[in-house]
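Self-study notes.
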Amino acid sequence: MLSEPETAVQEVPVDQLSPNRYQPRTKADEEAMLELAKSIKTHGIIQPLIVRKRGNHLELIAGERRLEAAKRAGLLRVPVVMREASDREMLELALVENLQREDINALDAAEAYSRLMTEFHLTQEQVAERVGKSRPAVANSLRLLNLPSIMQDAIRQGRLEEGHGKVLAGVEDDRTRYRLFRSMLRRNLSVRDAAILAEKLISERPTGPQAGTRAAIDPNVKEIEDRLRRAVDAQVKIKPKGKGGTIEVSYADWNDLDRIYWRLIRLEGVTPQHDPAWDIPAKRDE
């Protein structure tokens, strides 16, 4: 259990405060931060920050947003209360504060749960008890950490909600999951509609010997093929294999390969010029 803070409120210089090393939130909303800074400049800090002593400095336990907003508002001193807290208690309190304020995104919360389990050897049940969540809620949150980074980034950026992430995490096939992910973004699907589409895509997925062959190619992969073909003006084939695959670009002769090469270079914004590494030998048929 966390110890009770000292009741006396003190004012300390902001330069004596160091950040909470266990702060679970990785990104703050800039607009909300500006509004908080404006409020603090007008009314001051109503709720003191919670800190612990660490050498000659004070380490922040809770109140990171208030501290940052106070700095932006030009405050030189801020009100604090002292508390004895272990490293685990620091992470727990910072996590609980953000969860109660709904001031943390789903991925940050999942990573904080994971840290509590790995760094402090807690079970899912113990984590759930400490943060006031059910064990299934914690378990579902942790599943988000298994998503590809591109999907995790979409959740962090607010392009998808936590519920979308849970629907994606429930799809085992990588290709189907990616197809669902693209549909979520393109069609701005609600969580409910995303879940319905997930069931539909899973039911349509080939399961026989033809699964993964050209005959059963994902329409999204076909679309990428078409875009690449138009981009390089050449025949392009994407050949999925397991979780990866190959991209095959056909060319008619050496001059056609040279043309495709410079087409790709132009796509990178490079102006064609002489490249010694690309000198064409006089003969290619020997």
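Second protein, same conventions, sequence then structure:
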Amino acid sequence: MNYIRGHWRGEQALLWSLFVNLIFLRALLVYCDKFTLPPYVEERSNAVVITMIYAFICHGVVYIWQAVGLFRASERKTENIDSRVWVWVTYAALIASFVFTLLSLLGFYQGLDRKKFEVKDPLALENARKARYSLELSTGGSRISLSGTFELGMTAQLKDILRQNPDIQGVTLRSEGGNVYEGRGVAHLLKKHRLSTYVFDVCKSACVTAFIGGTKRYIGRNARLGFHRYGLDLRFPIPLYDLEEEEGKDISFYREQNIDEEFIQKAFHTPHKEIWFPRSEQLLKAGVVHVIMDQ
């Protein structure tokens, strides 16, 4: 805060305010414009919200802070000829940065055109998501192997497989995680069909929510279950929905599945960028796992 306040008051060195606070930061923010548009943001409604918030903060609030602070710093440097030269350089930089900012806003406007979000192949997005995960029926037809990232559409596909194969008794999970909603959807689907869940490798984040949906839960000796808080894996972490509310839904589900309260609190207080891998004994004691298998 002292740094921000110091620049705003013009207390920092003119050259620092010019080259770092204005030129470098403005170039960085203009470069980051593209991350609010396709292909980084697929849905137009999301892109509009993210772009408006980003433009208001970075090309509105932040730019005013940059320009005012630099202008005030330049007013302090008028004692000699050399300093006046730098003042004129400052004015030129302010004009140039203003033009670039206007061009950036124009780029936002053009980038949000509906045609930019039209999918030439209606199935391309769905197929791309399906390619990130796999649902395979075992040879005997009694178990499904679920691997890959939890993506939109996974729950619906699993539901179709269960409807076509009523003799399925369990699901083997191997995943680094993914979409929170799909993890919850799979969990409730498994609970509804009273299926057992198995992990012999790694199951983290959204995957462990799905695992806990099992009526009987099994892990191998070398299995690893990873827990942490929810987070938004966006290039710009803008709260498009209430993460605490989403966590609350799954905390309630954990309790329905008779998971120990102390374990739940530990799992949902582990920072999003970290992963907590409890020992097998902890998992058994907390009711997360019912049986540890040799394989």
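Instructor comment on the second fold: The radius of gyration is 26 Å.
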